[in-house]
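User: Quick sanity check before I run a bigger batch. Here is a single chain. Can you write out its predicted 3D structure?
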Amino acid sequence: MEKDEDKLVDKFLNITTAQKWITGMYPMLAFLEVFVCLTYISINLAISVPCAVVIFFSIVIWGEIIKENNKFLFLYYGMENSLLSLCCMLIVLAISHLDFFYGIIAFIAMLLPSIPCNIYFAKRQARKMLSGQDSMDDMKLKPFVKIACSLGVLIGIIEMRILSADGKTLVGVVCFGIMFYMFQGFAISEFHKEIIRRRYNININNLLKQQSIKPARKR
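Assistant: Done. Predicted structure follows.
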């Protein structure tokens, strides 16, 4: 049973495949950071741009370190997806043209219901996979991700040409709002994987300690 459980945990974490996705996240973060800087016109670019550059290169440097040593891999992904989620939220608030007070209310309103829901779904998915009831194959998802991105760009170009200013704002709020919830869900799922990985490592360490103590007792 322990060996089967170890296999399920290893399959769920899928560390080897997860490492390959690190570089692919850089362009998305760069794009969203640029979008945030451009949409928040009220903030001086001399302040927002250096902050965005420092955050981006910090993530890149950390990612390159993670490639060499996969320790804290899922913590890294959790932080990266959290940044992507935050960028999407800031874009939603910016294009909605909300003032500071209403922006804070909207910020809290977006966070409060979404965090418990995403925690529930992350734990539910983890339970299914660790019990062997479900499987996750990233390779099967790649074609759908590419198709969704291509359709998103095409639809976006068409809508920008035919919609009014209010229509563009509405579409932008909806799209980036969905991305906010999506990236937040990814972040929570990755943090949950980090917890499971540490629990798994702790169990292995305890087993090794017990094995080293038993010969000493026989003597």
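Residues 1-212 form one domain.

User: Great, the batch can go ahead then.
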